[in-house]
Amino acid sequence: MAAADWGGKADHLAGERATAQFDVDGMKVAWAGSRHAVEVADRMACLVASDPVFRKDTRTMLSRKELFKDTLKKAAHAWKRTVELHLTEEEANLLRLYIDQPGYVDLHWVMFVPAIKGQGTEEQQKKWLTMAYKFQIIGTYAQTELGHGSNVQGLETTATFDPSTDEFIMHSPTLTSSKWWPGGLGKTSTHAVVYARLITEGKDYGIHGFIMQLRSLDDHSPLPGITIGDIGGKFGSGAYNSMDNGVMRLDHVRIPRDQMLMRLAQVTREGKYVHSDVPKQLLYGTMVYVRQTIVADASRALSRAVCIAVRYGAIRKQFGSKAGGPETQVLNYKTQQSRLFPFLASAYAFRFVGQWLKWLYTDVTQKLESKDFSTLPEAHACTAGLKSVTTSATADAIEECQKLCGGHGYLNSSGLPELFAVNLPACTYEGDNVVLLLQVARFLMKTVSQVASGKQPVGTTAYMGNIQHLMQCKSVVNTVEDWLNPAAIKEVFEARALRMAVNCAQNISKAPSQEEVSPSFPQI
Amino acid sequence: MAAADWGGKADHLAGERATAQFDVDGMKVAWAGSRHAVEVADRMACLVASDPVFRKDTRTMLSRKELFKDTLKKAAHAWKRTVELHLTEEEANLLRLYIDQPGYVDLHWVMFVPAIKGQGTEEQQKKWLTMAYKFQIIGTYAQTELGHGSNVQGLETTATFDPSTDEFIMHSPTLTSSKWWPGGLGKTSTHAVVYARLITEGKDYGIHGFIMQLRSLDDHSPLPGITIGDIGGKFGSGAYNSMDNGVMRLDHVRIPRDQMLMRLAQVTREGKYVHSDVPKQLLYGTMVYVRQTIVADASRALSRAVCIAVRYGAIRKQFGSKAGGPETQVLNYKTQQSRLFPFLASAYAFRFVGQWLKWLYTDVTQKLESKDFSTLPEAHACTAGLKSVTTSATADAIEECQKLCGGHGYLNSSGLPELFAVNLPACTYEGDNVVLLLQVARFLMKTVSQVASGKQPVGTTAYMGNIQHLMQCKSVVNTVEDWLNPAAIKEVFEARALRMAVNCAQNISKAPSQEEVSPSFPQI
């Protein structure tokens, strides 16, 4: 049997690629955002692909312990390369992205550092970020507890001020108050921003952030009064099993008063609780930032899954041979196309909406800094809605891509099982998608009522100001070609969205009690 | 801190259980099928739960190799217990079910043995099943190839008869003809039913089954000309990674002529291909059997996932506390109920339809044996449709149950990740769900056209005979209470199903070509 007969060398995709009817290079630039972005991305991708330490092909073969060690090795090597090559922040972020293995560094850069930036005083930022930027300390973000996720206001960990020693006593009063899930907590982190109920002068002032050292910088053992562990295996063969999500219980652990993050409020030496003149809305800037990165992650995951499924569809042939001829590429079946092509379109849509969200974050930040809070509720609803829609659609699409690759989609070697296992939890973390959609619904209901009383809606809801026209207009579409007119499509979406919102608002006004329908979520 | 404060001992479900408004014991019997079935199931469940060899709690912590060894150990121990306790076939099946770890024994009992039963002559059955029943040989079912899954008629492995030695030459002529996926093939099986194109006297007679010995019974090494391997990691932490799905290539391997399964057709000593008087429709009996077990598996998996999510919802409290009182059980939120309760209803529905499918299999088998094939197409469509609907709904529901348990649903300790990873592939194996639904659609279109020409439809499609009434009737429902009338509900479903089928048939008759819409699937 000649090697050629086994088909190992043939390029089965060249024919497909040759028939592209668009400017491939131009699309690359549009996708990346700029010619510069294409160049940097390619360079970082090559850096990962050419370095044996970053190899990924054995990842799903490793035991949990080996996988975790592999993650530590990669993180250390990435940091070494970042320093050696003097990578910019943009380059370093892309390097982490292409290494593509969840680990403690994600929490350090995406949660710990931004939390201190957003909630720490200038003095605190100088002290802690200096160490964090050099990786002299490794930080995580300890908010979620065993008993409380979505309901942040229900967290039970306490931070009780003791004026006799000028310290906070950090404590886990119940089993359910154990910190649970923080990535990097189980084994790696030396520090954390810990969220707890601030109690001073006998009064509970609600949830605040505190910087805590968790482990010795000498021998990495947990400090006295702190019990930490890994919470065990998670969904998927590799996926988040590379991350040491952890549990932590605190037994009256004392920290200096100046480790409370004090940008928005502080406790004085005497124990008085004092608000600063910095508005608390600033906190929402961080939330917009984190959700924006999640939308970007979703669009990236979806595009990878669709790429795998499209290529498989081009190579896989099944049924439809006539008189012994070749079978039909499954990509040519309408049943395959009708399932796959909407995902392909969504991958582009999510990419571009992700780029827009980056702009929104910059815009919100600038407005917050000049104390303009007028667009915040709309921006918050926007990021909540887009986080929910893109992560749910992406998880569903990756699962469907597995099915579209037949049995082969369930093999780890297809890449799809890990992509799915890494991205499904995004439907839950950083705001459960169902809870977030209810928040969006609540915002829309409020906007409808404001429009009714003559207030002009802003941002993505500005179209609702056109209520007179939209409630009664008829679509200008008469022929198939009319659907190619973007203005016509936009008007149809606006009219449909507004009519559904108005209709829903009318139904709710008739309902006996809103409390029965959904929990009372915190609102901006 | 007193132990009681940590809440470790409280029975949080007792209150919920006390409010059940139905006869729990009666429901147990209805679920199991009989009082006897409850008793046997309980006994086998206890046998597994009380035996340390069958422990499951460490399963997702094991490396692939350890997990595979653990599976071998459990299978051997189960066999030992089956022999020691003189378990009946019913009891032994339940024992395997409660051990709940995919392994080579599943293929041996569910595919290898039934294939020989269905396609082997009496002589062949006597020879091979005697050994199989004693586990002197371990069998698998080698049908799927790297290049062909759904399109069984496109399999490329050849079985060429050589009259000079009275043997078949089994061969893999291409890379894509490699056998790919058979469970138990990678490491364990000593024998297989291998499907290949039968070629004799220069003519290709299509796909037939052959019994092949794969490995030495002395040292378990693959026999000459046979290359076997494991196809690698699969979706999930544990899940199907306990199974040695395999790849096999055959290089002109010779087997005696009498290892062709000859119940339906045979090759004579001279190489003549001769049909027996046994009708080929008998093969479909096996298909009905296998799909019936898949529906039963789906209903079991769904009920387990729903059980976990319902209990979680009863224990988990979040939001809604008033003036510092306890929070609301998430099970009491309508947003949780509207997602969860339909799965609870489906779990019961799938259980009862699974019991009905068992009856259908018995009925089909009896009819086939008396050469009555009249109900076969309807029974085939029924099992294809129910396999597809129940496995898709179950996989989606388990995934949703993960989300309904918040972050905790992604922890292996919740049980849901493995349940999901084991059951999602059921959407693809033994007939891709989309392909199967297209077969059902084709059957329905044929039935509509037969009804139009006056032929009386049978079985589950008998209602379509009532076309005159159903196409124009109006629902008798006027009040909410009317929906409690089963006859009213049934008529609504019948009218809706028939009208959709007729409408679809009319649309298809207007379409330019059916070939463009979907592949030409094999038909009964």
TrEMBL record, chains A, B:
InterPro entries for the chain: ACOX_C_alpha1, Acyl-CoA_ox_N, Acyl-CoA_Oxase/DH_mid-dom_sf, Acyl-CoA_oxidase, AcylCo_DH-like_C, AcylCoA_DH/ox_N_sf, AcylCoA_DH/oxidase_NM_dom_sf
Molecular-function GO term, any one: FAD binding
Chief subcellular location: other
Record keyword Iron present: no
Protein name, entry field: acyl-CoA oxidase
Gene3D superfamilies in the cross-refs: Acyl-CoA dehydrogenase/oxidase, N-terminal domain (1.10.540.10), Butyryl-CoA Dehydrogenase, subunit A, domain 2 (2.40.110.10), Butyryl-CoA Dehydrogenase, subunit A, domain 3 (1.20.140.10)
SUPFAM superfamilies: Acyl-CoA dehydrogenase C-terminal domain-like, Acyl-CoA dehydrogenase NM domain-like
Native species: Triticum turgidum subsp. durum (Durum wheat)
Cofactor: FAD
GO cellular component: peroxisome
PANTHER family per the UniProt record, alphabetical: ELECTRON TRANSPORT OXIDOREDUCTASE, PEROXISOMAL ACYL-COENZYME A OXIDASE 1
Top EC class for this record: oxidoreductase
UniProt domain Acyl-coenzyme A oxidase N-terminal: residue ranges: 23-138
Domain Acyl-CoA oxidase C-alpha1, first and last residues per copy: 284-445
Family annotation (Pfam families): ACOX_C_alpha1, Acyl-CoA_ox_N
Record keywords, A-Z: FAD, Fatty acid metabolism, Flavoprotein, Lipid metabolism, Oxidoreductase, Peroxisome
